[in-house]
């Protein structure tokens, strides 16, 4: 597996042209950085797979809504989900505002899918 590290605080990865100051880094620090980056990469892969599973379910919801002429959006459910996710975020020591923004981004994409499904079934 090729490892790409794009969202941490260190700049260039080991072996990358232009690594510069990283050449003088203690090997133990470099090893720990690599271990942490590998964990980040694995978590990112898990997040992508979980989002794919979530969208498979929401596609089924979209078809069910379209088949029964239900609206693509459900503002009451969305509000409950946002409140629920904010509480989960607080309990997990994650910024609830970030969690809400993330869920709003996902909800907007789901609604777009549901609208597309509904347009195709008319």
Automatic annotation (TrEMBL):
Alphabetical GO biological process terms: chorismate metabolic process; salicylic acid biosynthetic process
One annotated GO molecular function: chorismate mutase activity
Feature: compositional bias, Low complexity: 12-26
Top-level lineage group: Bacteria
Isomerase is among the record's keywords: yes
InterPro entries: Chorismate_II_sf, Chorismate_mutase-related, CM_bact, CM_dom_sf, CM_II_prokaryot
Membrane-traversing stretches: none
Domain Chorismate mutase residue range list: 27-118
UniProt region (Disordered), positions on chain: 1-26
UniProt keyword annotations, A-Z: Isomerase
PANTHER family xref list: CHORISMATE MUTASE
Protein name listed in UniProt: Putative T-protein
